[in-house]
Each structure stands twice: as structure tokens, then as C-alpha cells.
Amino acid sequence: MQPSDSEDEVDSPDGPGSSHIPPTIYVIKFHPAAAREAIEWLIEKIEAKHKYGGAELLVRCEPQKQSQGVSVHVSATKIKLLEVAESADLQKKTSSGLVQDFCVRDLDQFLYPGLTLDTVLTPAEREYCVRHELDSIRAKQEEGHVPGYPQILLHPGESIISVYLAEELITDMFPLHDRQVLESLANKWYKAIFQIAPFGLQLSLDVEKYEFFQKANDYIERVLPGFQLPNLTGTIPKRKESTDESMDAKSEGEAFYTEEIRSYFGESVAMYFSFLGFYTMALLLPAALGLLQMVLSVDTLTEYSLFAAFNLIWVTIILELWKRRCAEIAYSWGTLDKQCQVESRPGFSGEMRQNPVTGRFEPCYPHWKTKLKVYMVSAPIVGLCLLGCLWMMMIAFFAEEQLMDWKKRYGSVAGIFMHVPSAFYAALVWLMNYYYKKLATGLTVWENHRTQYDHDWHRVSKLVIFEFINNFSSLFYIAFYIQDMDMLCSQVATMLIVTQMINHFQEALLPYVVKKAYNQFADSLVSQLRSHPLTAKLFEEIVKPVHGAEPEESPVCILALDPKDPRIVQAKEECDLDPYEDAYDDYLEMFLQFGYVFLFSSVYPMAAFWAVLNNVLELKTDAFKLCRVFQRPKVKRVGSIGVWQGSFELLGAVAVMTNSALLCLSPRLRHLAPTASPVEWVLIFVLLEHAILACKMALMWLVPDQPLWVRQALEKINYQSKLALKNERGKKTRRHLSRRFRSVHGMPRSGSRSRGTTPVAQNGGLRHRTPSGNYREY
Amino acid sequence: MQPSDSEDEVDSPDGPGSSHIPPTIYVIKFHPAAAREAIEWLIEKIEAKHKYGGAELLVRCEPQKQSQGVSVHVSATKIKLLEVAESADLQKKTSSGLVQDFCVRDLDQFLYPGLTLDTVLTPAEREYCVRHELDSIRAKQEEGHVPGYPQILLHPGESIISVYLAEELITDMFPLHDRQVLESLANKWYKAIFQIAPFGLQLSLDVEKYEFFQKANDYIERVLPGFQLPNLTGTIPKRKESTDESMDAKSEGEAFYTEEIRSYFGESVAMYFSFLGFYTMALLLPAALGLLQMVLSVDTLTEYSLFAAFNLIWVTIILELWKRRCAEIAYSWGTLDKQCQVESRPGFSGEMRQNPVTGRFEPCYPHWKTKLKVYMVSAPIVGLCLLGCLWMMMIAFFAEEQLMDWKKRYGSVAGIFMHVPSAFYAALVWLMNYYYKKLATGLTVWENHRTQYDHDWHRVSKLVIFEFINNFSSLFYIAFYIQDMDMLCSQVATMLIVTQMINHFQEALLPYVVKKAYNQFADSLVSQLRSHPLTAKLFEEIVKPVHGAEPEESPVCILALDPKDPRIVQAKEECDLDPYEDAYDDYLEMFLQFGYVFLFSSVYPMAAFWAVLNNVLELKTDAFKLCRVFQRPKVKRVGSIGVWQGSFELLGAVAVMTNSALLCLSPRLRHLAPTASPVEWVLIFVLLEHAILACKMALMWLVPDQPLWVRQALEKINYQSKLALKNERGKKTRRHLSRRFRSVHGMPRSGSRSRGTTPVAQNGGLRHRTPSGNYREY
């Protein structure tokens, strides 16, 4: 057992005295006033051996300046990373084309030609592994509180890092960019503005998968002829060999693949870009139809209905095909079964008990309590918020009408107040949005979902419902209460085009420019204040220790980085950036756009065209945002777009109803069938709606969620692990069986007539044993 | 290797010379004119060792009489049965409460107290194992045709038994009843007519499962308070210890459990009875509401809508709860994952190729070809048949109207023809039904589905659509075209009550009585004809050999049973019975009843009451039918009610539409809201329908298909097999990893600054190797 203890040194032959560590993966910034003991205790934990509850990572601190908090850089040896990759159940593609659990023993299987031990794990996977280790530093039974803070209690099994974050002992913890990789990525990604590349979002398929893929494609072609999406048929792409430095030179000018986004930013970001690309491609057809509709100026009932029906069924087809595509992508990423993961998320709290599945001691919380909280508390609260929103909207509309009346009566004096209600309403919506987001997050944390997936699901679904009401209720009001189609049309156009364009500017460019300017200004101000004799004292009063303890100036007792190490500057720069939470805002934007395009497509068919234009730009600004505006995102391993899939599907179903109703109300159509009675006219659209909904249902039900090749590959793995299980139990032998059988029942004899040829032996079968030489020799 | 060859003798110590074998499980009757070579070849195969492609079963023939075909009895030793149970992937409950693959090595795990090696496999499982072995006798490459029949070709890998059956070389093949078990089952089951037992259809839960179950129950209670079904809460039932002979005495008078039906008749039959019991319990509420509605004589719009809405949502709740219940049952039977089974059904044909999943050589048939056949050929044909049906119904209605006219004009002369069209229509429907069933079966066989599940699914769904149109189209015509609610009401009542009562008589009692009488008559006639000198010759002419060969009178060269063996008489008796195909007819009856009850529930609320009465009787007649009228059914291991679940759900959705429309049309309701305009009146019901449908959708989506405890149990097994897989790969060792790392890269050094601390070594890393003693010693 001894040798394994001395192995850490293998990786750092300079010994623990060296200040050099492998590239920094995480930077942890402690609060300037955090107690030295607490900091050192955590650092010790991070460095300690597994058997002492540590994470076995490498830590170096930045050379400290006065009154600044301790910042440490966390890294890991290559061996450690490979080990973690295995224990964190990372799945990777083997050279046989199947995706299997990563396993150090079978390392050769995962080494494609061109990959080495250094590059077998992508930057994203390395980040994931280090965070996984940091998160799994958990409090032990005997550790009652954080050293130095008797008031901060530690429940056994609690993730220590999350306690430090919650108590603000750690002010910031973020992965550091790998600048070299990032630059080469950015060059190909957002800088090439006029490149068609974003549409070629393809996986780097190896040959076997490509064959599978072709088959699946042939199959789609046969079952749904003509419905094939352009980017489902690709030529065999040249395999991206690795993510190492040599890549830049080789792949300059090549098409840019999702696989590369994934290898740096992780699965959730890559999934978003895949979806965006897929969805934009799928919008091309409605956009073309919208243009066609405008050019041809259709004007029969059948034509209108056909266009609407096609659009609405197309939505279902898009979403079904995306589900299949998503399964393919997730399979090749090894995240297809992430939904049923057994691991609990770091923030999950509960009594420490044995997990019924794994038998490990883990925080446990009764499932029914969570359900109860969801249905009995959260759901009513969300409902009330939605009602509040609707009520506010009604008041705004009512006030506007009143003003309209007053304007007529009292002339232009009232006219200047005309836009007050809507401005007031807009401000209120913004405010409510802000607080509701906090409320939703708080409620979801309080519901205490065990897995990250469930947590995200419940949080996002709360937000989506609210956003839906906020954004579309006024349109519904215009469409079905005021019934003014022209107003609806202009309103949709405004909201779609103007707000989206502003969004681009606001979400990517503005923060980048403003932040840079602000930072420069703030830095110069601070240094001036510090140096000026009048303000220096005041300044020190302001930057007061939060936890009461005086900042100790003695350096932390671990090795510091070389003061000239470029990572120190880099960490400072990136610390000032905003953290990238998740792709929620980006998905939300798509969701709202989807609503504007399809909910009212029969009134404003041009929406799809504008949406396509927007999305092309969106691909670029989102890329820019990720590379420049935010901190390096934390990798989330996802296997689908989660709650958004359901939201889009629901919106698709609602769109069928709204469009049927819009066509039914449309004054342009009413005169096309002057002979129909009003009831007949309504029934036509009820029937149309039912027919389209039935079609959608049938499609959703008939198209399998996973393509054949994915199902086969999964079955294959399942079968192999079943075989392995059987083998492990040992090859059954007849000998074993018949010997045992005899020892219980004596000589089995098939001569007796009735069933149960030998009487059941409670006496151990000794009575029946008739040993005979020739049966004994084996 | 030698010893294992001599093991068959272990089980039959009397040697191959003995004519006694364990209880007969299967009887195979060959055609009287089948070539002796073919018979002997197959018997040889059944007896041969596995390595020679045999089934290793025991065979004895009946003592032959002149001009009768050869009949053989097939059985198996206990050891063989256990072996097959393992290789056929049978799952059984272990004493730890989990359901796992049966494994001979871990036999002790499956031996509950009270179970012995003789009784660990139920009669149903024994039957399943023997048939599994018979079906897996497959033709080898070198066997080009059936011996004696050069024209009957054998494709390699084809199931030989199914070829013999298809070519009618085997005229009958059925499992023999175990009379002792059957009697004890029948006594408790259908004979106790006034017992409440059928409602207590519960699983025999062991204690651990019971706890799980209670938790799930608590959960339902909390999430859906008040929606709990009575038979979900049970006291801990006494565990049924075994199925051996001692059972009769002990369990007399105890409640009768599904588990016992399953242990004798297998999963598909037990599943049907569980469903019937569950569904009947669930109908009690609508029945009570129906009575209430009659007693209270509701007459406001709100009341009507509430009753209708409740009924329609109750349907969804029933079906959702059944899905969960079904998952519980299937889990405890080990059939939950039978849908994704890898084994292909015996009748599946195709090129012999490697299965992409298992790697075994199997018949393969492109998936897309099957799909193509389904969508391009079968679907249009089925569609045409449906159109034909509708067309015929229209003609019948039209003819009746014409006759009505003529009657008015020409008086009673035409009146006598009044019922000709409907009688003619009924006859046609009967005839079409008969041929359509053949067509559907033929089409499904031609579609060539790989798994039994897919095959059954496609066959049954074809039949269900047809039956739906046949049975309900006339009701729809009356309801929505003629719009005569009184006629509809009486029609529903007639069809529900009269036809179902007739059904009971026809399906169980009639065949039993008629068959017995007919058999006696036929036997006496044949013996008279044979003995009479005038007809004896003629008789021999009629019973002519089919395959041309003269029946050889030499006995088959295997051992015969004792001529006094009671099994010979039993086999003869049971051979005369009809084979039990599947529960299709029984499910269909429930499906149609479900339709009558819910499709028009707002018009005829009493339907549920009659349905309950009917079902109580149905439970008894179906039991009688299984025990007396049919041959012992072949066990089918099913995990759900298959296509019926979807059919019932679809019918539930259609019921929402029909009931909304019926309420909208109802003249009784119209005067309740005299101020509403016709359009508003229609919109009320459109909204009502949408609201109910949305509720249904939300329910279906929110209620998980499997209860928590089943999901946890499945996850546990999954986790264990994953662990086993990891263990099998060998415990990863750091030593392995770091040694390997060094041999490729030389000494890893974390001192260098940039990422990729050691340059990727194409040169085998020799340049970097800096061996140092202290790192080498481990």
C-alpha cells in the first residue's frame, strides 16, 4: 500500500518546493477578510489524499498584495485527470465507434490515431474533472464547523466548496481560459463573419458512425420523402484529430464543427449552437413560404388554410427531427443517459442516509416532500404572479383607453400622457421580471431537487411560463379581444425585429465596450484615491472586513506562483468579467422568436424571414459573447435541450389553436365563404384545428425519438454489460448444478410417474443419496 | 470436457431404455402421412445435445395405432429446465426483493423459504422453457431441406419447428395441462361464483416490496388526494409459499391472487385478469355517478358539464394509474423490459447475418423495408377496407330509409322487408370481419417484424381500427347525422347489454357443451363407419395421405409410453380442444365496452353500471373458458397490455370530443341558455373540450409512468450491473496508469510553464526517460 502514497511526487519531480504547476484550470478568490485558518483548511483539503477526504489537486497561490484577498490557482496532473475522468463516469467514443464509460485500463481503446495521453481529454473535460473533484470535497462527521468560524456549521456530507461560496468566504471561483485554444477557436468562429460555416454545424463523424448515419438518413428519406433536412446529409467530414496546438495550422479555413465548440466550452454550449443552427435551417422553409405568400398574394380559403397547416405541421416535424438529431449528438457525446444520473447536485441538502440505489451515504430528502412543495406552494405562487401580470396588463390597456377618451374630449393636453401607461407598464414588467427570476430561483432551491437536471427543469419551467405571459399576453389581447389584425401585425413586427436587434447590441457589444471603459476608469480612480493623502484613509474605512476579523498579512503557507507568471494577470482580467450562468437567456430569445413566428404566422407570414436574418447574426454575437464578454463557462454535460424541448412543443400546439382562431376571425377570409352560416364557419376552423392537432400527435407518436442506429448502439452496450455481468457471476457449469442437485435431492430419478418426481427433501436429501462410481468421476 | 457428455444419464438413471419420463409438458402430433424420416429427424434433433444443434429434451412416443399419426410427448429434466431458465433470460424475484436475471450459480438467492429446486420454476415457466428450446432448434448451413421432402427447403437459421408447422408435417403442438394444479386453481377461481375474490386481484407482495408499495401509495395520496383506488391499499397479504401440491389444503378459502394465475397460465393471461379487475374497480365510480345522475335528474348546464368532465378526466386517471400499476406488476414478474428484447420471433425470416447488437448470426431483414411495407402497402389497404365498411354502412342506412318510404307508399307489403338491409349488413360485417382478420394477420406476417412485440402490435392495431369503425360508425351516424338522441340511447343500451350477454354464452358455455356433444357423436359415427363393411373401404379412401407417401406402419424408433399411461388419454382429449391464441378477443370486448360506456356517457350514463355487472360475470366466464374450453395456453411473457393501452387512451381522447359535441347538440340543454347566440353556444363546448383535453394531457405528462419504487429498483439493478462491469474490467490501479504514462512520455514533469507540459512524444518518449531509483521500486 505504501507505494501508492508516494505517487503524487511522480508528477512533480521538482518536489513540493516548486512553484510551477500545470496550466491553471480553476481560480479561487477568497474574501479579503476571510480567516486565514479557514483558507488554509480548504487548501489543505484540496491538496490532501483521497483517503483523507481530499481532492488530490495541485494548488498555488498568487503572490499576495496588501489588503487583497488570497487567490489560488488549482490544477491537476494528467494522471489525476484521467483518474477523475473514470470515476466521474465520463463517456467517450472508443475506436470501435461505440461510446463507452471512460476507463483507464482500456485507455488504448480511447486513443484515436493522433490523440495522445495529453489530448485524450478535451479542455472542457479537464475543467469538468477538476470541478467534479472540488465539489466532492465533503464534510466529515467529526468536522462540525468551518475552522475560524464556529457559527458556520457543516453538516456531514455537505459540499465544503458550496458552503464557502454561500457564506461568501470564496468571492469568486471560475475556470481560467486557455488562451491559445480560445484564440484559435475565436478566429474560426466569430471573426469569419461572411463565412457560411455556422450552418455546417456538424459532428465530426467517424466512418462507422457515418455509415450508421447514412442508413438512418436513407430511412428518413424513405419514410418521409422530401422532408429531409439539408444538413442531415453530409459528406464524410475529415476527422478533427485533436485539440492540440498543431490544429490551428491544419484546419484554417475548414468548416467549423460543433465538436470543436464542445471540446472547449462543453456540451451545454455546443448543444445550444447545434440547436440554433438546426432551427435556423428549418426556418428557411417557412421564410421562403412567407415570401411566396407575399409575392403570390394568396386569396382563397383553401390556400390560406394550406399555408397555415403546412407551417404548423412543419413545426412538429422540426421538433421531432431535432429530438432525433439531439439523441444522435448526445449519444456521440456520451450524455444520452445523463437524465437518470444517480449523483445528487452540490446544493442538495438533507439527512445523511444510505442511498437506496447505490448504498452510499448521501444526503437524502423524501421525494414526496419535494412534490408537495412543488404542487402546494410553488405552483400557487407562480399562478398568483401570472395573474398579477395579466392584471397589470389589463390596467395598462384600460388606462390607455381612458387617455384615448380624454384626448378626444380635452385635446392635446391629455395627448402628452398618451404613452405614460405603456412606459409605466414596460418598466413594471422589467422590474417584475427581475424579482420573479429571484423568486423562481429561490423557490426551486427551496424545493430541494436531488439532481441537477430536475433542478434546472423546475427553475426554467417557472421562468418560461412567466415570460410567455409577459411577452404574448398583450398580443393575445389585441388578437382576440380587440380583434384588430393590422395592429397585431405591426405589433408582432415591432417586437420581433426591433427588440431582437437591440438585444444583439445589448447582450454582446455593449457589455464588452462598457465594461472595458468602466474597468479602466475604476482602476485609475482607485489608484488616485489610494495615492491621494486625503482619501487614502477614507478608502481603507470603506473596504472594511466583512467577517469582522482583521486581515492578516502573513502569507498563506503554500507555494506562490512566480510573480511574473502571465496567469496572474489573466486571472485578474477574467475575474472582472461576468460569469456565464447558462444558455437560459439565449434559449429564451429563441423561444420568444419561435412564438412570434408561429403563434401569429397566418397574420404575419414574413416573421420567419426576419427570424432567419436575426439568427444568422445571433450565431455570431453569441460566439463573440462567449469568447470575449464572459468568464470561461463551467461545463455542463447535457443530453438534450431539457425543458425547452417541451416548451417549444407546447408552443407549437398553442400555435395551432391561435392560427385557427385568427383565420376564423380574419375579415379578409370571411367574405370568401358568404354562404356559410356563422356556426358552420366556426366549425370549419374547429375541424381544421382538430385535424392538424391529430396530425401532430400522430407524427410525434410514430417517429421514434432515437434514430435506429442510436438505439442499436445503446442496445449493444446494454447487451455487452449484461454479458459481462453474467461472466462475472462465473460461467455456469452443469457440474455445479448437477452436483448441487444431487446433494439436496439425492439421485434424481425420472422414473416415477407423477409430477415432482422426487419428493421434496427437507432432510437434506441424504436418504436418497445413492453414490455410484461412474457419476462421481467428474 | 468428457464428463459433461455423460451427464444426461444422471437424470435418467434407468437409462435410455426406460419409457418413463417426467410429466409431459408438450405434445406434438405429426401428420398421419408425414414421412418417417422427417419425424425421426426432428425427434433426434429434440433429443440431441446442444453442440449438435439439439434441444436436449426428453421424448417418448405414444403407442401407435394403425393409420394414426405419430404423437410424441416432450419433457425435460429439472436440471435442463433450470439451465434453460437462465439462458432464456428469465427474471425472478430474489430473496432480497429485487428482480434479477435467473442464474443457476446464485440459485440460493431465488429460493424463498418453502421453495425447493422442484418448485422454483412455476408450471408456466417450465412450459416457457420447453417451448423456448423447441423454437431454438434451427436449421444449419448444411441442412438444405427436410429429410424425405426435397421440396421443403430449409434456410439456415430457420426455426425447424415453425417450418414443420407451416408445412403441416406437425398438425398439432400444444402444452399438456397439469391436471392437479389446474383443478386446485379452478376450484378457487371460477367455481366460487359468489366470492368477492376477483376484486382482490393483488400481487403477493413480500415485505420489502410492500414497504416500497406503501411509500408509492402515500405519494399518490399526497399528490392526487382522493384519487386513490381502493385496491391500491392492501394489507400485507400472506405470502403464497409455493405452487406445489400441499398448497390446496393450506390456501382453501384464501383470497385468490393474480400471482397464482400467472404461475399456471403465464404473464399474458394474468395481465388480462389484472387489467379486468382494475378496470372494473375503476368503473364503480362512473357507475355510481350514473345512478346518481338518474336519481337526482340533473338539469343545469353546469351540472351536465361537470358530470361529463369528471367522467372524461376519470378515464385518464384510470389509464395513468393502470400504467403505473402495470409497471409494478411487470417489474415483479421480471417482464418490464421485454419490449426491447433482442431475440427475434420464430416466424421472422431474412438473410442470415450478424446481428449488430449481439454479434450472433441471425436472420436479418432491413428495418426500412418493414417500415416501407407498413406505410406504403398495409396502411392503404387497411384504409380501403375501412372505407369499404363505411360505404356498406351508408348503403344499409340508405336502403332502410328507402324501405321506410316504400312502406309509407305501398303499406305493409314493403314492411316485411324492413329488416332485410340491417340483417344483410350484419351478415356482411360478420363475413368481412372474418376475412379481414385473415388479411390483417397475413399482412403483418408479410411485413416481417423482428420481435414478437412489434408483430403483435401491428396485427392488433390493424384489427382494432377495423373493429372501431365496424362497431361505432353506426352510432356516430345516428348521433351526428340523424341527431336522434333517443335512438342513440336505445342503440347503445342494446349493443352494450344484449351483445355482451350473448357473448358470455357464446364464448364459454356454448363451445364447451357443443364440443362435448359433437365429439361423442363424431367418435361413435367414425367407429360405426369403420366397422360397417359397406363404408370401411370408402372411409379409407377419404382419409388419404396428404403428402403422397403411403403411411408406413413401422413404429418410430424411440421408446413408447406405457399404453396405460393416463397422459395418452389426456393428450387425446386436449387435442380436440381449440387452441387459445391470445387474449385478443377478451381485450376487444373490454375495448368495445369502454367505447359504449365513455363515448356516449353524457347521453346514456347508466352504461357504466351495466358494464360493471357484465365484467363481474366476465371474470368468471373467462376463467371457465381458460380452464375448460381451450387447450392449455402457451405462455407469453408480456410487460404491459401492449397496443391496448394506446387504444384505450385514444378512445378516451375521442370520448372528450364526442361528449362535448353530444352536449352541444342535446336539445335538452339548448333551452338552458336561451340568450346565447349559436356561435357562442358552439364556442362554449369547444372551450370545454379544449380544457378537458389540456387537463388530460397535463395529467398524462405529470404522472410518471413508473412508480418511484420501481424506478429505484431498476436504477439499483442498473447501478449494480454497471459496477460489475467496472469490476470485471479490473480495478484500475494508479501503478498501471503511471507506469504506462512514463513509458510513453518519459518522466512527467510539471515544471514547465505552458500547457502540454511534456511535448507529445512521437519518439516513444525515450529521450525524456530519466530513471531514478526511488520511483522504480513499486
Automatic annotation (TrEMBL), chains A, B:
<feature type="transmembrane region" description="Helical">
    <location>
        <begin position="638"/>
        <end position="661"/>
    </location>
</feature>
<dbReference type="InterPro" id="IPR007632">
    <property type="entry name" value="Anoctamin"/>
</dbReference>
<feature type="transmembrane region" description="Helical">
    <location>
        <begin position="463"/>
        <end position="482"/>
    </location>
</feature>
<feature type="compositionally biased region" description="Basic residues">
    <location>
        <begin position="731"/>
        <end position="743"/>
    </location>
</feature>
<dbReference type="Pfam" id="PF04547">
    <property type="entry name" value="Anoctamin"/>
</dbReference>
<feature type="compositionally biased region" description="Acidic residues">
    <location>
        <begin position="1"/>
        <end position="12"/>
    </location>
</feature>
<feature type="transmembrane region" description="Helical">
    <location>
        <begin position="410"/>
        <end position="431"/>
    </location>
</feature>
<feature type="domain" description="Anoctamin transmembrane">
    <location>
        <begin position="261"/>
        <end position="716"/>
    </location>
</feature>
<comment type="similarity">
    <text>Belongs to the anoctamin family.</text>
</comment>
<feature type="region of interest" description="Disordered">
    <location>
        <begin position="728"/>
        <end position="778"/>
    </location>
</feature>
<feature type="transmembrane region" description="Helical">
    <location>
        <begin position="374"/>
        <end position="398"/>
    </location>
</feature>
<keyword id="KW-1133">Transmembrane helix</keyword>
<dbReference type="InterPro" id="IPR049452">
    <property type="entry name" value="Anoctamin_TM"/>
</dbReference>
<feature type="transmembrane region" description="Helical">
    <location>
        <begin position="269"/>
        <end position="292"/>
    </location>
</feature>
<dbReference type="GO" id="GO:0005254">
    <property type="term" value="F:chloride channel activity"/>
</dbReference>
<keyword id="KW-0812">Transmembrane</keyword>
<dbReference type="GO" id="GO:0005886">
    <property type="term" value="C:plasma membrane"/>
</dbReference>
<feature type="transmembrane region" description="Helical">
    <location>
        <begin position="681"/>
        <end position="703"/>
    </location>
</feature>
<feature type="compositionally biased region" description="Polar residues">
    <location>
        <begin position="751"/>
        <end position="761"/>
    </location>
</feature>
<protein>
    <recommendedName>
        <fullName>Anoctamin</fullName>
    </recommendedName>
</protein>
<keyword id="KW-0472">Membrane</keyword>
<feature type="transmembrane region" description="Helical">
    <location>
        <begin position="304"/>
        <end position="322"/>
    </location>
</feature>
<feature type="transmembrane region" description="Helical">
    <location>
        <begin position="594"/>
        <end position="617"/>
    </location>
</feature>
<feature type="region of interest" description="Disordered">
    <location>
        <begin position="1"/>
        <end position="23"/>
    </location>
</feature>
